[in-house]
Amino acid sequence: MIEIRDCDDFEAAKELILEYSKIKGAESCFVSLEKELADLEGFYRDGALLLGYDEKKPVATIAIKRTGDHTAEAKRLFIKPECRGRGFARPMLNAMLDKCRKLGIEEVCFTTKPEVMRIGYSLYKKMGFEELENNEGTVLMRMILH
Question: Residue 14: enclosing H or E segment and its boundaries?
C-alpha cells in the first residue's frame, strides 16, 4: 500500500524526477527541468508536489502546477520501475485530484506521450480524462472537477 503526502523531502523528489527524466522517449517532457529542480518548492508553490511512500521509502511523485486561478497542469507522475504493477498510479492520481479540489482548481490538464507511457495514458482515460489534442504524439488531456 502506498502512503501519499505533501512533499516533505525535496531531495527525494528531485531524485525521482531526475530518474523519470531519463526514460527513453520522455525527454521532451522536461523542457524546464533545470529551473524546476533548482527550486522545486518555489516551482510548485501555488500548486503541490506529492510523494508516494512504500514502507517509508519514497517511490512515486506527482505534481500540480497552477496555470490560472482555477486551472492547473498535473505533472511528473512517476512510479519507480521496481514498484510498478502494484496499483500505485491510481492512488497517486486520486491524491492529485483531491489536492486540486482542495486548492479550488476546477480544471486539470495532463500532457502525455501514449507511445512512451501507454499504461499511464490508458489509466488517464479510464479515470475520465478526455483527450483534447494530439500534436505529433504528444497528447493533451483534461478533466473538469466538480
Answer: helix 10-21
